[in-house]
Every structure is written in structure tokens, then in C-alpha cells.
Design goal:
One of its GO terms (molecular function) is transaminase activity. The modification N6-(pyridoxal phosphate)lysine is found at residue 186. The active site is at residue 186. The chain is α/β, with parallel strands linked by helices. The chain has two domains: 8-103 and 110-243, Type I PLP-dependent aspartate aminotransferase-like (Major domain) (Aspartate Aminotransferase, domain 2, 3-Layer(aba) Sandwich), CATH 3.40.640; 246-369, Aspartate Aminotransferase, domain 1 (Alpha-Beta Complex), CATH 3.90.1150. 40% of the residues lie in helices and 15% in strands. The protein is built from twelve helices and 15 strands. It has helices at 8-29, 35-48, 60-70, 88-95, 114-120, 140-149, 202-211, 233-243, 246-264, 293-302, 332-340, 352-369; strands at residues 53-57, 78-82, 99-103, 125-128, 153-157, 165-166, 169-170, 177-181, 195-199, 216-218, 221-222, 270-272, 279-280, 286-290, 341-344. The chain has a seven-stranded mixed β-sheet, sandwiched between helices. A three-stranded antiparallel β-sheet has the order 7-6-13, with no helix packed on it. Strands 12-14-15 form a three-stranded antiparallel β-sheet. A hairpin with a 2-residue loop joins strand 10 (216-218) and strand 11. The longest helix is centred in the first third of the chain and has 22 residues, at 8-29. It is globular. Bound molecules: pyridoxal-5'-phosphate (PLP).
Length: 370
Amino acid sequence: MYIPFADLSSQYRSLQPEIDLAMKQVIEKCAFINGPYAHKFEEEFAQFCAADFCVGVGNGTDALFVALKGLGVGPGDEVLVPAMTFIATAEAVSMAGAKPVFVDVDPENGTMDVADLRAKISQASKAVIPVHLYGHPADMEAIEPLARENGLFIVQDAAQAHGATVGGRSLSAFGDCACYSFYPGKNLGAYGDAGAIVTGDAVLAERMRKFANHGRKDKYDHQFEGVNSRMDGLQAAVLSVKLKHLKDWTDRRRAVAAVYDRELSGIEGFKLLKRRVWAGHVYHLYVVRCNDREALSDYLAENGVASGIHYPVAVPFMEAYECYGHTHEDFPAAYAMQESILSLPMYAELSEDSALRVCEVVRGYFAGAE
Ligand SMILES: *Cc1c(COP(=O)(O)O)cnc(C)c1O
């Protein structure tokens, strides 16, 4: 039995007739850019997120960039971002002309450390981007009041957290907006690039919509310079089909996580990340920590179990950010994570038997290592 890290083709097989039909309709109607399918998905996704407005864009990176531009973040501003995330969180800040300022993370779940956030806020801080890493929400109930006291905008990076909740409340209850990616491997994935921003602020939504469509008010009536980052009709149609299944898929991910939690606790030299009691975790990834991560991952591979590392280099230590001169001591928790984390197979179609097999192999590794 080979257990892949993720499995997009079995999901397609289960939805094929519906997806094929949806794509055919978009092509027949030539509704390629924005248009009725994109608007329909925007409405459905806003409702799913319990938000008033949804603006579809080209990808998740642009969602962050368009949100920052919509809020007026630009040159001279600092934006606080966690040290452990995908590069796009910091990249979007630079794209807007602002400076990313890194914040260390909570070693128990990998999200932004609130005490370090407080320490990094300066006169130049304009916004904060909490990342709901691996599907575990950042501590919004602590971050939001801290950000507001300091006059910061809050742009959530929810690229890994479709449907996550904080204290039973949807992410839309917090901050200025939440940015989503529909990259194929995300919990809700398109068949190409797509992204969206959801917000309760009508003025912000309008500004973001125009910015992402050449600053356009009407076809050739451009109020300001924007960019071209719109939702593709084919992607929107695929996403509408898939959105109906997202709740079930999230339940399945949670069931897999429950198997891992139960079967993998109490192994010496091996740690599970901890879910906070208030966190409605959606398990984009299931991440564990151990000292000799490479040896464990090799052993898993030899026994037919794929694994991944998210992420092997924390953002401040990447070559791309060398210019800031950060050392490992600046972000000890993010550094400890990059050296020890391993992601186990996680997707809705992973059967209980396969999840149990993953656990058996992990346990076998530690039994042999004793
Ligand atoms: C995937 C991801 C993004 C970027 O989304 P794209 O659609 O790939 O541009 C941003 N932030 C995080 C945390 C992500 O995982």
C-alpha cells in the first residue's frame, strides 16, 4: 500500500460529471473572466464565510496584495507577518511597496506569537497579517484588540484555513478582511490559480474590486491605475461545484487528524502540535515534530508513506530576505520548527485504514530506534 501526501485525482473522479459539465457551460457561454460564474461563486463563498462581500482575484498572493493596496498600505509602512509561513505572506507586503517585519511564532501551533507581535509594533506599523497556519487559526481574540489599540489594519491570511473558526466564530468576524487561496492543493482548490478576499466593509470591497480590475469603473473608464487580477470563469465554476462538498471534506480531515492524535500521542522524542481549545482547526496539514526528522521521513518513504516539510526554511532566513540580516537567534521558535517539522499525509479521501497504516509505520520507526 502506497500512501501519497495528497490525492487530487480521486477527488476529481468522484465529481467528474459535474465538473466536466460546469466547465463546458463556461466555455459555451464564453464567460472566461469575471462574469456570471465568478459572481455566483463570490456570492456562495461570501455566504460560506459568513461575510457580506467577496472579491474574486487571480490567486492567493494577489488576494493579500490587493487587500493591502485597498487599505492604503504602501511605501514607508511596516507590515507585521509571522516568520513561519509560505513566502507569499511577506511577498505581498513588498509588492505593495511596504516592509515586512517578522514576528516569531507560537511553537505549539506555528501561528503568530502575540507577545512578540507586541514587541515588534513600531511607529511605522500599518497592518498585521496573522496567518492561520496549517488550518489552525491564529489567536485572533488576542491579536485583534492589540492591533486596534495600535491603529493597525488586520489582513488575515486564510489561504490554508477555509472554514476555520475562533471560539465558534467564523474568521470573518475578525479584522478588516480575510484572504483565501484556491491553489489546487488547498482545502478548497481550483484547477489552476484563483483567490478571493472576503470582508464586511462595502467601501473596501469596492476599492479592492476596482484595483484588481485596472482601476476600472466602467469598460474604458479607469479611475486610477490598478492591476489585472481577476477570477477566471472556469476556476469559479469548478470552485462552485467543490464548495458544496467542503464541509464534508473538512469533517473527513478532522477524522483523519483524530486518528493521528489518538494513535501518535505519547511517543518519546516525537511531538504533535497542539490545537487550542478555542480553535476550529481545518487541518490543511497535519504537522508533527521530532529530532531526527530526515531519518523518520526516509523510513516513512521506504515503507510507502509520503511526507513533506512546511516549511524547511522560515521566511526571514530565506535568501530572498537576506537583506534584513536576520539570524536564527532572532526567531528561535520558527528556527526550531524549520529544523524539526514533518507533515504527514492529509486529505479528505485518506481512509481510516490508510491513516492507521501511517501511524503503524511511525510507531515502527520509533520502536526500531529504541
Ligand atoms: C498558498 C498560500 C498563499 C498564496 O496563495 P497562491 O494562491 O499560491 O498565490 C499565501 N499564504 C499562505 C499561507 C499559503 O499557504
